[in-house]
Amino acid sequence: PELHPPPPLVHLGQPQAPHDDDEHSGEIREYSGVFEGPEKTLEVVFRRIPGLEHLSDLAASDDEASSVASVGSDPISKPGGAVVRTGLRALPHVDLDTICARARCTILSRLSNRFLDAYVLSESSLFVYPRMIVLKTCGTTTLLRCVAALIELGRKVGLEVDWLGYSRKNFSFPGDQAFPHGSFHQEMEYLCSHRTLCERLDGNGYTLGPVTGDHWFVFVADSTRRATADGDHDADRVLNIMMFDIDQDVAQKFYYDKYDARIGPDETEEEAVRRVSDEQTKAAGIDALVPGARIDARAFEPCGYSMNALLFHSYSTMHITPEEGSSYASFETNQKLRNYAPLIGNVVRTFQPRRFVMTLMADEGGLDEMGCNPLFAGNASDKRIAVPFAKVDSVAMSSTSVGGGGMASYRRKDLASIKVEDDQTCIMGNWVLEGGFRVGGTDDGVDSLVRETLDSSWR
User: Fold this and answer.
1) 67 given a catalytic annotation
2) Nearest to residue 248, comparing CAs of 163, 324, 343?
3) Which neighbouring-strand residues pair with 120?
4) What does the mean pLDDT of the chain come to?
5) Dist CA 134 CA 163 (whole Å)
6) How far is 417 from 241, CA to CA, in rounded Å?
7) Distance of CA 290 to the CA centre of its chain
8) 27 a catalytic residue
9) What is the 3-state composition of the chain as percent helix, strand, coil, each rounded to the nearest 5?
10) Which residue from 95, 98, 291, 326 could staple onto 34, CB 3.0 to 4.6 Å apart?
11) 267-300 exposure pattern, b = at least 16 Cβ within 10 A, e = fewer
12) Catalytic residue among 2, 19, 39, 316, which?
């Protein structure tokens, strides 16, 4: 795992590019046989610029805002049925292409509702609200190189940065990364020395978790104008589950050649991709993880899978790299649940990983709404999750459960939390499979509150 090294800030021999030359995001690295699954995540919240409020209220029709293929929408419409978008949603497609090009990814499809647009990318996902953008990229993308362009495009619609957060897990293959992502130290140095960013992003970087194992890097630049005397607090929160060494039978569901390439002479290539994507979604049970949501899924050749789902104001997103030896699946959502334990249990049960990293970034109001959540509290290593499985991993145990009697126990081996800026908390925990899988038996040692909340989702 990548550590948090002292200077020098770059890897020896790694080609570098000028800090302000963001249109050229470094060399394209050849595929090395392994893939960096854990995503880099950038979230930018904007506010109106005084005197330019009229720009953020300007509306663009669907045709003006985007030319990308849409998989369905439930947008605010004006007479005639055209989609009406304001703020960042009014940016034309060419502007979104500029952002993605600097991060070295491309837009594949869009899903929309009245509140946001969700784009499946060649390397993860992009979510656009009127005043917020969330961009997740995996592999060797250069995510931070789009920040300067994003700020300028915000000004184009009368918006300025209110809050910016960048986070990622430590890399499994740090040597494959391109500038400025050679290390967290290099990423921070890039933001602090970039001539168009250094004065706008007065933030701080943090490391959560053991630097000798899985850990989480967070950078936050907070310019928020806090709530007035009424004491209101925002209640936003984002949960991310990063799963490693997923069950190989599950991983095989995300190889493209496991499905019919074409089912008829009239089926187009795009229709075939859509069909295979839907088949993978149902075969893995991913649709059951986001009940009621509308889904935009994408299967990749020769393997891999991405999914965005929208439910009112919230999004959920999944990204899967099934290669043996570096298999990985992630699930992230900003849905405001009071209790995440049933969702977490269902996600883990679906992919049966050997270990997973769970992070939560929440505003003070969000933590208050959640109340007592045993998965994010207590001593660092005193929590366990008992997860039932319909099948027992043959590597862990050569028996097959019958009637859902298989049980796996995950133990939290460490927990780290920190309060950043004035009212936001970041929590990160590492969970490992404990003692393999077992058929029947009990869940002795599993925290009673955790057991109760998990059991409720399977009754």
Assistant:
1) no
2) 324
3) 109, 125
4) 80
5) 12
6) 16
7) 15
8) no
9) 25, 30, 45
10) 326
11) eeeeebbbbbbebbbeebebbebbeebbbbbbbb
12) 39
pLDDT bucket at 438, cuts 50 / 70 / 90: low
Report how far residue 224's alpha carbon sits from residue 193's, in angstroms, rounded to the nearest whole number: 22
pLDDT of the residue at 191 = 86
Is there a catalytic annotation at residue 198?
Answer: no
- Token code pair at residue 188: 């921070």
Given 36, 123, 187, 332, the catalytic residue: 36
122 is catalytic: no
Element (H, E) at 240: strand 237-244
Tokens at 236, concatenated: 């936003």
Catalytic residue selected from 19, 194, 215, 319: 319
pLDDT digits (tens, 9 = 90+) for 368-394: 898 877 788 777 777 888 888 765 444
Backbone angles phi, psi at 265, to 5 degrees: -65, -20
Give whichever of 49-58, 76-85, 298-307 has the largest mean pLDDT: 298-307
Q: Burial code of 174-191, b = ≥16 C-beta within 10 A, e = fewer? A: bebbbbbbbbbbbbbbbb
Instruction: Quote the CA–CA distance of 99 and 169 in Å, as a whole number.
Output: 22
Of 112, 125, 183, 306, which is the active-site residue?
A: 306
DSSP letter at 176 equals: G
d(CA 77, CA 84): 5
pLDDT band at 192 (very low <50, low <70, confident <90, very high): confident
Collapsing DSSP states into helix, strand and coil, what is residue 286? helix
138 a catalytic residue: yes
Query: Of the listed 56, 66, 109, 124, which one is catalytic?
Result: 124
Task: Tell me if residue 301 is catalytic.
Answer: no
Residue 260 tokens read as 């019919």
Q: Which stretch of 107-111, 194-198, 320-324 has the lowest confidence by average pLDDT? A: 194-198
- Predicted confidence at residue 180, as pLDDT, reads 86
**Catalytic-labelled residue, pool 2, 105, 109, 138:** 138
